[in-house]
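Table 4 source record.
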Amino acid sequence: MALPTAQVALPTAAPRRRLLRGPVRRHLRRSLVRVAVLLAVAGLLSAGCGSTTKPARPSPSPTSAAASSTSPAPSPAKLAWRRLAPAPSERTEVTAAAVGPDVYLIGGYRGDGTTVSTVQVYDTRRNRWRQGRPLPLAVNHAMAASVGGSVDVFGGYTANGTPSASAFRLHHGGWRRLEDLPAGRAAGTAVAVADKVYLAGGIGPGGLARTMLVFDAAANRWSSAPGPPTPREHLAGAAADGKVYTISGRVRGHGDLGAVELFDPETARWTALPPLPTPRGGLGATATANGFVVAAGGEPSSERTTTFAEADALDLRTGAWRSLPPMPTPRHGLGVAAIGTAVYTLAGGPRPGLHVAATAEAIDLAPLRPRPHNARPAGPSVVTRPVGPLHSSRT
């Protein structure tokens, strides 16, 4: 804002006379200077405090669309990734789910190509890892969700490359077998809403899966629903506001797809949303407690030298994507989960193909928007009804 300048009209110079010379003339000059200074200060005070004109509102930056009118967009210094204690083993093509303060990192490949049943648990409060009970079946590209305070794991490729139809629940420290999937499924996404888990996309026995499998956790029973309008595999998914979000992915021979599609269980209808800014497969996704669906990592299908560090957040209030700071370590086939407003990215491949890492990183999205006081925990909704009968594990 231009500050007002006080102007003082000086009297027209009179003919030179002896009485204006000497001390009298110097006194007159000092008086005029004092008047000019006082007027200038008065102008500044009136402009800064007494004006009734509101200052012009600054134009929003390209990344400030998600900020509310009472919560300005955070500076990059406030929104940054932090490195965590690395996982006990290096893996890729894992799956992950959060329960309470813990994130479970499940299955995947080792660096030698072995498919593993490894389960490791990251304690977000203590920044520590512990070993979990191994899965009854070694799988990679499996799908996991948090249901009723437990972790459910579905499908995945077995060591011989066949999509598995097995399903397991971590219950009281041990794995129990759930009702088998109607058909094998791998490289899809599992999204829990209320007491149901939706398996969308991926690969089945006949190739690209076009039907969504729906698991009723309370009844331990399967049904089906229309699959995403854009069938794809190596996609990501998340649950928010009682809806199922499917994000990006790829189709062999057709490349990477930026499709983002929402399924409403109440209406059984799909809705297309703005596409992911950088289409990719092999990414992970989750939802935070302050209203964002976050997609992170991935790899392109067009070439085998790049792994994505990109992280993007879909603002559920505005329906627009915004770029987050990139992950310090680009990865694909990683596990992604949220607890509150914090997003955790665990393990994955730092380069395309069979490469492994134990990297663990996190970013807290609280600066984007405070968590509402009545917000439920991020991620899948919790089952409040008793869980149905479970079958004993088969090893």
